[in-house]
Amino acid sequence: MVEYQAPATTRNSGDGNPGPRAARRVLLFVVLSATFVVYIGTLGFDFVYDDHEQIVENFRIQSWQYAPGYFTQHVWSHISPKDPSNFYRPIFLLWLRLNHMFFGQSPTWWHLTTVLAHLLVTLLVYLLACRLMRDRVDACVAALIFGLHPAHLEAVAWVSGVTEPLLALWFISSFLCYLKWRERSPKAPRWIAASLAFYTLAVLTKETALALPALVLAWEWIFPAGIAEAARSQIQKVLCAIASTVPFLALSVVYLAVRVRVLKELSHAFTPLPLRTLVLTAPSVVWFYLRHLLWPVGFSAFYDQPYVRSLGFFSFVLPVLMLTAVVLGLAWWSRQSRAVAFASIWLFLPILLVLNLRVFAEGDIVHDRYLYLPSVGFSVIAAVALHRLKLGRTRLLDRPAGQVASVATLALALGFSGVSQSAHWANDLLLAYRGMRIAPNSIYALNELAITMAQRGYNDEAIRFYRKVIELRPNFWESHYNLGLLYYQAGKLEEAERYLNAAIEINPFDPREYVCLGFTELQRGRAAEAAALMRRAREIQPDGASSYMALGVVLKSQGDLEGALKEFQTALSKEPGRTSAREQIAELEADIKRSHAPSH
After folding, report:
1. Which domain holds residue 471?
2. Burial of 205 by CB count in 10 Å (0-12 exposed, 13-18 middle, 19+ buried)?
């Protein structure tokens, strides 16, 4: 018997077991409320990890004057526009700008908008599951699993992780509009236009949205309609399915062309891995993600997932065997249920897009946030599995009581796991300690712990951790820079100069290292060298105010008041809200006026 034959139109997408409409709405309300309760604790969390650089210190999201640049520069351009990057995400930057405009730097409201975005996506998962499963109660189960799953902690409890809910919001909306277009109603042109508009927002939020045309193709193949359904040959079915993806493929080509123009490459390879290593590592990475969906414990911002360079049993053979068992099981099940077939493709396709490990920093190859979109497919598969449970003859909510009890038990387990594991996202210290516990060999966790120690004034511990990172990875730029900054702040100028020069040698594209080294040289009485370093920082980041401010300080120390005034005025024009620039301008204008006043 074939389960869940998805309808061609929504007129037949009602309930497998009809019941009062109000009861179904109450059930959906319970799903969304439970999801909100699990994440309500995040409203008291701080900005953590990349939030400091993405939000707190990001001048580009503090004024609309920078908004056009969101579409012509990468996400990290506020720090180093010349540094290679794979992140072209203008809609994400617009989201940050809107949040900053309304909420400033109050983390509570930023966390609230992130949670609300997750709730909207959970609602869309329900609507998608309705189309797939033709049963609104089972669709609520799928939405419940999606909403509560702890794999979403990184995407929901961390403000900068909102890229995933935003992506899913536009992505699923585009797909649902596409399904409405397939009904060929008088409003069909509006639906395809809306679908393409949402797809555009999706790819401009995150590049993973490029999976959508493949999902459209999969839907057309699994659930053919119209000409494709009546096609007598497989070739005709394929051609009909491909034809449906043409508008999305055309938009994808335009997006890729813009992306290449902005980033200078389709994607930059930051870790030159041989093809053999990519192939051998892929099974363990995919199994890592499936394991976190199936057994949702041990989540962290940091993992020390290793590269696989040989045919070891635990590193390669066992993951291959486990994946083979999962794929064969889903393939067998897909022959009975087209909903499972499509959900399986939705599960695996986005994961395949993150298997080009060359585009990630060395050793930083897995993150739970990459599970956000794939977990939509997983949630549907899990809901179908729960639907098959026929435990006992007693019925509850028009379902076997054992099935209802299983869903309630799973929901409680997921909710408890999510709440208990969310605490480590509350602040940087908890996040760093959690990272060291889960991934003791991760230099990224160790570096984050060092940063946190330095922020709290434990300089000796921070220095020890930074040196440990450099010992493990001598070319790790961030620890060289952070250690140089720490030594500068401690007045140990020779050590600061050594580590800052090393940082510049490793990565010559970050203006902060030149500014810090410039102030180090200024403290050592080398004003000319300091000015040259500040000018180099200004060349690298001409849009920000920091390098202009730094050069103004150096010129002021040399007695060049006119030159310093010009730099401070430029800094103010770049960042109108910078009070320190305004104060320096007022002081210099007064000094210059006094110096030009006639003496008596």
Report:
1. 434-596
2. buried
Q: pLDDT tens-digit profile of 428-453?
A: 999 999 999 999 999 999 999 999 99
Span 368-384, pLDDT tens digits: 999 999 999 999 999 99
Number of domains in the chain: 1
Which ranges constitute the DSSP H helices of 307-388?
Answer: 318-334, 338-352, 374-387
Buried-state track 95-112, b at ≥16 Cβ within 10 A, e below 16: bbbebbeeeeeebeebbb
What is the distance of C-alpha 306 from the center of its chain?
21
The two tokens of residue 469 are 């990172």
| Distance separating alpha carbons of residues 2 and 376, to the nearest angstrom | 21
Q: How confident is the model at residue 18 (pLDDT cuts 50, 70, 90)?
A: very low
DSSP H helical ranges for 231-269: 234-263
Helix (H, G, I), strand (E, B) or coil at 274: coil
Binning pLDDT at 50, 70 and 90, where does residue 596 land?
confident
CA angle 276, 278, 282 (to 5 degrees): 120
Q: How far is CA 597 from the centre of its chain?
A: 58
The CATH number of whichever domain residue 564 belongs to comes to: 1.25.40.10
Domain membership flag for residue 497? yes
Is the residue at 579 inside a domain? Answer: yes
Q: Is 123 helix (H, G, I), strand (E, B) or coil?
A: helix
pLDDT tier, 2 (very low <50, low <70, confident <90, very high otherwise): very low
Nearest in space to 153 (alpha carbons), one of 422, 511, 519: 422
Is 461 among the domain residues? yes
